[in-house]
Amino acid sequence: MTATLTVVPLPTDHRLRPGDDLAGVLLAAVADAQLTLADGDVVCVASKAVSLVEGELVDLPPEVEDPREARRELARRHADGIVAESPWVVITRTPQGFVAANGGIDASNVDDGRALLLPRDPDASAARLRAELATRTGVEVGVIVTDTFGRPWRVGQTDVALGVAGTAALRDERGTGDLDGRPLEVTEAAVADAVAGAADLVRTKASGTPFALVRGLEQAGPPGTGRDLVRPLTEDLFPVGGPTAAERAVEQRRTLRRFDPDRPVPERILAAGVRAAATAPAPHGTRPWRFLRLRRHTRDALLDAMATRWRTDLSADGLAEERIERRIARSDAVLRVAPELLVPFVSLEDGHDYPDQRRRTGERDLFMLSGGAALQNLQVVLAAHGIGAAWISSTAFCPDTVRAQLELPATWQPLGMVAVGHPADGPPPPRGRVPVDDLLQLR
Ligand SMILES: Cc1cc2nc3c(=O)[nH]c(=O)nc-3n(C[C@H](O)[C@H](O)[C@H](O)COP(=O)(O)O)c2cc1C
């Protein structure tokens, strides 16, 4: 082990621009610190400096007003995939393979309306800078391109190595023994990340210090790359979250009956809900689910027609007019207020035909059940995005009225209505433990 490791900040007054000579700016900062590079040194360079020089500045989507949402939207557009999403952050897998909050996109210290993407190929950037430094100084240094990432299970950010050249990325201790001689099975020290973290100790974001010089680092193994530190997709548990994540997601769904009428539901969340609905199991491998998203005037006309029908039914049941109107008003408080109203259907077109009523009923029931599964998926995904829903019976009791009003074929069976929107009173309370002893029976 080396006795001493030093980490020296290398500030610069130079505001980096596309096409700048990064090696030149770095060597000037080294000289300003009254140092010269030596063989075995490792130079850490903030990825922001690399991105600026390589011209990775892009426009934020101008149509998204909120600057934070604009950054999230940009991250989505530049992502290879969404790993996790909450109302305040989107975690994406970037085209380079990194998993980062808002795709590692940086909007600090750049012009309004613009943002900086991560370097396209940080390993290549590190290798280029290392070669350029060798050409100009005759010295072989390691280069690490660093960025500040959060960790899903810890508070606070720390720097990690995105690109590595001429220095180790990992110290593989697998197969060696611990103090008692027991073989280590999984230990691979992320040394390049640790060096990146050390570099972050000697600079703050506002200090204009894109570089740090690390001297005295004992090489822990052969030179590696930033790629070595990217966990393969197949071993990454973060997007899956384990079985408990699925249980939590399902438990989160609650029937919401009070909506914020003025807060629209983002299109992409509605689309995610319908995509989830369309993964429901269905008889004969069919895709029988349909969702009508009602415009305001269609919604009002349909609810008016259904109310007329409801009044007729309830009067025939002998209910007093006052009670009838109270019921309709209670229903309207949900169905006319929610910012979105979906009418879910199953289409029976692809069902098998049977000569007898017993099997025809069975076949219809199977399709209806598939509709229920689809609606559960829809609501679970909406709830995971913080969007509430109320699945209301209504249309199921007047399918003819619904089909006539919306001009639909007789094969479309309405499954109620789903009011969708942000909760008026914050997130619903936790459900608490659901007793199941009486539900699961052994025979
Ligand atoms: C097919 C179906 C129809 C429903 N219809 C109504 C309804 O007309 N009005 C209503 O307030 N809730 C309705 N609900 C919601 C239930 O009342 C609700 O699921 C139940 O109270 C349990 O609450 P939770 O969904 O928060 O777990 C319906 C649920 C289902 C599955």
Task: Walk me through this protein's architecture.
With 443 residues, this protein is of the alpha+beta class. It has 2 domains: 168 residues, 60s Ribosomal Protein L30, Chain: A, CATH 3.30.1330; 179 residues, NADH Oxidase (3-Layer(aba) Sandwich), CATH 3.40.109.10. The chain contains 11 helices and 17 strands. It has a 5-stranded mixed sheet. Strands 13, 14, 15, 16 and 17 form a 5-stranded antiparallel sheet that branches. Strand 4 and strand 5 form a beta hairpin. The radius of gyration is 30 Å and the shape is elongated. The N and C termini lie far apart (67 Å). The relative contact order is 0.11. The model has no long low-confidence stretch (mean pLDDT 93). Bound molecules: flavin mononucleotide.
Total number of beta strands: 17
Strand content: 15-25%
Secondary structural class: alpha+beta
Helix content: 25-40%
Q: Averaging pLDDT over every residue, what do you get?
A: 93
- Tell me the number of structural domains: 2
- Rg is 30 Å
Largest sheet: 5 strands, mixed
Main CATH class of the largest domain: Alpha Beta
What's the multimeric state? single chain
Quick description:
By secondary structure, this protein is of the alpha+beta class. 34% of the residues lie in helices and 20% in strands. The protein folds into two domains: 6-56 and 119-235, CofE-like (60s Ribosomal Protein L30, Chain: A, 2-Layer Sandwich); 243-421, NADH Oxidase.
Which features does this protein show?
single chain, 5-stranded mixed beta sheet, 5-stranded antiparallel beta sheet, 60s Ribosomal Protein L30, Chain: A
